[in-house]
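Quick one, T. Sequence first:
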Amino acid sequence: MKRIAIPLTATLTVLASPAIAQAPAQAVAATALPNGVEISNGAATIRVQALTDSIIRVRIARGGAFPEDASWAVSAATRHEGVPVQSLADGFQTHALQVHVSPKSLGLTITDRQGLVVVRDNEARPLQFDGNGFTLRKSTPAAEQFYGFGDKTGPFNRRGASYVNWTTDAWGFDRGTDPIYKSIPFYIATGDKAGAYGLFLDNTFRSGFDFAHRDPETVAISADGGPIDYYIIAGPTVPDVVRRYTDLTGKAPLPPRWGMGYQQSRYSYMTATEVRDIAARLRSERIPSDVIWLDIDFQDRNRPFSTNAETFPDLKGLAHDVGERGFRLVAITDLHVAAAANQGYAPYDSGIAGDHFLKNADRSLYVAPVWPGPSVFPDFTRKSSRDWWGNLYKPFVADGIAGFWNDMNEPAIFETPTKTMPLSTTHRVDSDDFATRTATHAELHNVYGMENSRATYDGLLKLRPNVRPFVMTRATFAGGQKFAVTWTGDNNSTWDHLKLAVQQMLNLGLSGISWSGADIPGFIGGASPELATRWYEIAAFTPVFRGHAANNAPRAEPWVDGPDHLAIRRRFIEERYRLLPYFYEVAEQNTRTGDPIMRPTFYDYPELAKSPCDQAMAFTLGRDVLVAPSPKPESTHPYDACMPAPGWYDYWSGLPVSGERKDGTPFEVVRETPRLDRLPVFVRPGAIIAKQSLIQSTSETPQGPLEIHVYPGHDCSGKLYWDDGVSIRGATLRQTVRCTLGKDGIMLHFDKREGGFKPWWKQIAVTIHGWSGPARVRGVRDVEADAASRTVRFTIPDQKAAADFVLSRF
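Structure tokens:
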């Protein structure tokens, strides 16, 4: 790294720009970096570095002293990446971007290589210091829209709203509640000429984001303290941004396959007998399901890592018994350890012995009320404390508990107006690449829940080294997708909350957290039968599929509203299980690319952002399946569902959609009249989707062949992925299937299979949709054409090697 100090006159020569000509008569220090530039104007120093051609890291220091280069969200190896850059008169350029810095104001402008602005600082006030805090201001054109930011409420498009990042127990939240459970200071801006970009503020203090709320031309980003350390992630597409953001903060691991099934919970199932009864009822009603959850009442006096000996006398026996019926148990472990000295409560005794709990400012033990009464709180920013916490799961893992639920980890505290612990509470930082030190809760509050789930995840990995951990967390920070799935918290049983849940899960997916769900049919209040049924239908196509209700709410299991509603709910749960091969491939794709499982329609089809349809509830499962509920889910009035082009198929019938175009647009518009027993779902022309026969849990082996459904169209392809469903390291199966449309037929091509996993299927049942007339397949004897469904069906042996099958007319 070459450092040079140059006088102002030389700066004007080297950094020729109108803004610099107005700079004060003082020396400007410039540093040429192999992957960027550093400039100081006396008041502050900015360091701008290219980690990749499309990811720019920006750090700003008061004066010339930068804080330590450390992060809870971005690994040291990632932060220290870089690409060579080419110097410009006022900055540098990569293969994708140009970066310009004003030495007068340290204002930043980033453009693409054609000069279109990606992001530009507010020229008048790009940066303001305020005590220990700061404010950054970015200009925003009127057409720009904002997404991401985790599970925040309010409008799906964040423009015109302001938010605070401060993880908060938000029981009974509504659309106007802020802050709530998660703090993910990352947004995606889209709609401007240069395409989409993302901004991630890597700062754990309380922060605020104003998306053109107070000033319609400005995004204001502020924090109470901590470093100015952020990343600009260029697109130009939204998928580009999401993939690169998850390159920074990490990809989600693949959960166990049973975590993708239907899961039944309540606060609480009060006895082991009730849990067995729930398992028996799910099986007798033929409701496919995989998990039963144990909320806090299975514990002794709400104490984590304990069991009520009277109501749950044999946890290992319970896990075995329900396991025989294809169920796993997931048990809650809140992080507030009962302050129960001299009572034989091992988590407290071992935690005290190891000095693993948070302290007050005077170094005394911090004690506060939560569910067990007076409680103490682990110091999760210490690796040794995380290791201690992880080892507490050993007896529960030995008993056969399959997964764990970290709740109340904002952290929630009772009997205080702030709902959390004092900002002066002290943590010890001894982890990752941070310097060992003491820090206050003001700095570490927002990462506390994430480090809790990290401790659980890492502990389970040590106890079961080749078994995928299943951890659910309520609170988290950027990068939390590496450790846990999540849900939207204590929602309400209302139609608006159903709509809000869809938007929360979509924005979580855009924020790197694909594995999310919402309590079905709302945690608080009790849903009407119609609301509950609609919620089950939509949730069948969302990543985490869990029914859950409060202890003072009516029962909410699928059967509670009678046989007619149960029949509809069961049918959608069954479809979830039939669709598991497609769902599993989309899930595995998420681990590699960061692409969300559940996506806004504009993710793969940006043209739908300009469609004539209200897209408030529409989403895709992967790229190929479009789910289009009514934008007003409580309404019975007809509405328009839009597809980005003609040729889409109805998922349920398999028939091509018959719609119309409006105002000369390319969109295919279908008029839908809501019916309680129907959820409009469509399939992309060109999709090849794998399905399986119906099973009652993922512990069963599907019978018969694997189903391949081919929907002819442009870019006709699909993928298969399969493994044993639980191992981290083990054999896998990957295969691409393609189709080519000819004048007189279709060629179906199987690429050579990759990986050594032996699948359950021995045959493949192929269904070609959208076919009319008789058909034959070269080399296949039995070919069935059905004029009513416009399908051709035939069965072939499993294909390991590359192979072609040609479908043609007689």
